[in-house]
Write a structure and sequence with these properties.
This protein is of the alpha/beta class and about 425 residues long. About 40% of the residues lie in helices and about 15% in strands. The strands form two sheets. It has an eight-stranded mixed beta sheet, with helices on both faces. It has a six-stranded parallel beta sheet with strand order 11-10-9-12-13-14, sandwiched between helices.
């Protein structure tokens, strides 16, 4: 069958790192289906913009058919970013016939974070008698309200709220990577039977592990810390405001002198601020290392004793979080410390680490000390539980097949109601 997925933030894999949408599409192709991804010529997630003449480009990569819509570029999160996804909306409507191609889509998935692809995906599914799914990995416009500090009456918030409600009203299934998200979605009118949880999945061994990609500096810094007897806890990923890194630095200050080192690996808008804060706090147990390729993450984490991450204490995260970093830590079989107000997480489900409250540096410091005091065998057993959990529940094959199962259920329901 033909599966179409909209994700305006993505393009072909060589233009940016492959994400969930790309991997699922490739897996469906391996299963014998036709997969089309509707992306855009530019987003902040891409390495570089796609350059082509005209308003649309179609190409096939790794068996997946990509329809790229020409959109304007932008920086930051201002008006130009809004114009970017509005252009994608117009392009998706204008090129609906091209997107459908010569094989009517049986399953159409709206997967853009902005929610505005709900209209195009629903219309395409209706036009071809297909099934319409909404995939939600982040709650918008709630993110604009709680992270962006926008007013509920802001025109952009209201616009995206209407788009989100459209998805909840018309989607045959709303698939979410946020385990507790129905507590919110139900308040917007989504029936429980149309909600489904789908976990994030890890990259394959070939994609995630290439020791030659790990810079010598990174290996040397962590190895030196370990040789000096330090317990090394690593955060590997984007360093941005969505994560509560000041809380982590406060915890690092509390464990200073306890033989615990915190290593940041990555780049992002808040890194300079954090580095300045480290100097002010005289944190000689914190290191910053540059961003590395995805294939170097596994070799890096295998040098560490634990993985770290966490969020601010805001309502948004109570409905669940779906960071790929927790999957990375689990695949590397290292224990993890996750500070969050989420009621569910991979860390707790797999019992592969410690979950502590957000905005509580004392609790975070105590968790680091607790892991440090465990024997290597205890830490290894904790990490192996995470690896086993990911292998059983969090693979692209399992998630792709689950989508096909949901599709069959939804198609049968539509057939019954149309009689």
């Amino acid at each position: 069958m033909h599966i179409v997925t909209y994700n305006y933030a993505l393009a072909t894999p060589e233009l940016g790192p492959p994400y969930r949408t790309n991997h699922l599409a490739e897996e469906w192709v391996r299963m014998g289906h036709k997969a089309t991804v509707v992306g855009s010529s530019f987003s902040h997630l891409l390495y570089r913009a796609a350059e082509f003449d005209g308003s649309v480009k179609v190409e096939t990569v790794n068996g997946v058919r990509y329809v790229l819509l020409k959109v304007p570029t932008y920086r930051g999160s201002g008006v130009k970013r809004v114009l970017n996804f509005l252009a994608a909306m117009r392009g998706a409507k204008r090129h609906a016939r091209l997107i459908a191609d010569d094989e009517s889509p049986a399953l159409v998935i709206a997967g853009s974070v902005y929610q505005t692809d709900n209209y195009a995906a629903h219309a395409l599914a209706q036009a071809h008698g297909g099934v319409f799914f909404r995939e939600t990995r982040d709650l918008w416009p709630m993110t604009l309200l709680e992270v962006g500090k926008m007013s509920p009456g802001h025109p952009l918030v209201r616009f995206i709220q209407r788009a989100e409600d459209h998805g909840f009203r018309y989607a045959d299934r709303v698939v979410s990577t946020l385990e507790a998200s129905y507590a919110y979605m139900g308040t917007r009118g989504l029936p429980k039977e149309r909600w489904h949880y789908s976990p994030q999945f890890g990259a394959s061994e070939a994609e995630r592990s290439d020791p030659s990609k790990l810079p010598a500096e990174h290996r040397a810094v962590i190895s030196a810390l370990r040789e000096a007897g330090a317990f090394v806890a690593v955060y590997a990923g984007s360093i941005g405001p969505v994560y509560d890194f000041p809380n982590l630095l406060k915890a690092a200050a509390l464990v200073k002198g306890d033989g615990i080192a915190v290593v940041f690996v990555g780049d992002g808008p808040t890194r300079p601020e954090l580095q300045s804060l480290c100097l002010e706090m005289n944190l000689d147990n914190v290191r910053f290392l540059d961003k590395i390729p995805k294939q170097a993450v596994a070799p890096l984490l295998e040098l560490a004793d634990a993985g770290l991450m966490g969020f601010h204490d805001i309502k948004l995260y109570r409905y669940g979080t779906s960071p790929n970093k927790l999957v990375d830590y689990a695949q590397a079989a290292i224990p993890q410390v996750f500070y969050t107000n989420a009621t569910h997480s991979l860390t707790s489900s797999a019992e592969c680490g410690l979950v502590v409250p957000p905005s509580d540096p004392e609790a975070l410091a105590n968790a680091l000390r607790r892991l440090r005091d465990m024997s290597p065998e205890e830490r290894r057993a904790m990490g192996e539980r995470g690896r086993a959990y990911v292998r059983e529940h969090c693979t692209v094959e399992a998630v792709a097949r689950d989508y096909l199962r949901l599709y069959e259920e939804a198609r049968a329901e539509k057939a019954r109601t149309s009689r």
